[in-house]
Amino acid sequence: MYGDTSIQKPIKIAEPTSAEQARLEEIFQQKIDDDIKIEPQEWMPAAYRKTLVRQMSQHAHSEVIGMQPEGNWLTRAPSLRRKVILLAKIQDEGGHGLYIYSAAETLGTSRAEMIEQLQSGKAKYSSIFNYPALTWADMGTIGWLVDGAAITNQVALSRGSYGPYSRAMIRICKEESFHQRQGYELLLTLSKGTKEQKEMLQESVNRFWWPSLMMFGPNDANSPHSAQSMKWKIKKKSNDQLRQEFIDATVPQAEFLGITLPDPDLKWNEERGHYDYGAIDWEEFGNVINGNGPCNKQRLANHIKAHEDGAWVREAAAAYAEKQQKKRVA
Amino acid sequence: MPKHTTEQITEKEWPLWEVFIRSKAGLDHKHCGSVHASDAEIALESARDVYTRRSEGISIWVVPSNAITASKPEDKESLFEPADDKIYRHPTFYDIPKGAGKM
């Protein structure tokens, strides 16, 4: 999932220090302009590498942390069918994290370093996972809205300029469609259920609508660093463009479900050919990103605990490998 | 702050393996990514879990990443450009009259 562009930091571009440097940068930009993908061993500006490592590692962290809100409901899935679906989805998120860590490592930063940055709080992950999954309906809403927003982001990212990231995104997008569809199907089932089930559905969507829109990041006017990412084709579409695409695709799906979206300003604008929508509460967004969301502490604490609890397995496997190696030499 | 210095050292000792998958009989193995694993056997199992959850493969190769020798991007011209002007190596270079039949 995810590919949240909302957690990007400013890109610092150093002036070329020599004529040779300037020539390399020119060749690099020419490749980008010609839509030639950049591969790991090739020369790239330090800021391009740094931006990608940051974005990809945060994307990978989001996948892995994203397993937690859903893991919370595994033992309470209402049927075996729903349980195997949820298990498969969570396993996919873990897999997606690994694809992206693997792609990010080609830039010369080890996975251990990236995980260290997550656990120390230096690296961020998508703000959406700091909201709790309070009801079973949330399992559907997360699939429909959160994965839906993620797909919108990731389809754009799959056309990005860095080869390994782009390939990982293509792979992920193929798998992600199942995530969104199973979520929508779950909600459709609730929409045909009892009064309580219908209320649970509406309440869940009310909670997740705005945080889902925030996943696309600040409005373009407040996203001054996007320009460089667009020039390098790390980013192919602006935050507001992607948000609009998502809203336009999602509103009819909400109507089909027979629910409302919690925005009184949401209405079709014939002239623009898009839905208009209300103002997003960026103060809430800032709070959640900066560690004060409902679940920030719990998510990180769980990650660290799982990592530490698994230490003996990693040590045992390393010791076993060493022993086998010695046997072969002997 | 997490106290995982020892794990980190262990993790660093888990080498990287490149993963190649044959998607079906008759096709080549194709590179698809990498995994960290303590040995070849675990690398195979991890590659199975990470890269073939939807019947993407019928055979997997794992190769220690440091065993791969790759050509350098800066050698691209000297390695590959000599082929660019040898158009006579392609069948379309030759005009064969229709009368000669399919060739």
Description:
The complex is a heterodimer of chains A (330) and B (103). Chain A has 330 residues and is an all-alpha fold. Chain A has helices at residues 19-33, 46-65, 67-71, 80-105, 111-119, 137-157, 163-191, 195-214, 226-231, 239-257, 282-292, 296-309, 311-329; strands spanning 267-269, 274-276. Chain A has a two-stranded antiparallel sheet with strand order 1-2. Chain A is globular. The termini of chain A are far apart. Chain B is an alpha+beta fold and 103 residues long. Chain B has a single domain, classed as Roll (Ubiquitin-like (UB roll)). In chain B, a hairpin with a 6-residue loop joins strand 1 (16-22) and strand 2 (29-36). The longest helix of chain B is centred in the middle third of the chain and has 12 residues, at 40-51.
Q: Indicate the radius of gyration of chain A in whole angstroms.
A: 21 Å
In what order do the strands lie side by side in the largest sheet of chain A?
1-2
Quaternary organization? heterodimer
User: Rough shape of chain A?
Assistant: globular
Q: What is the CATH architecture assignment of chain B? A: Roll
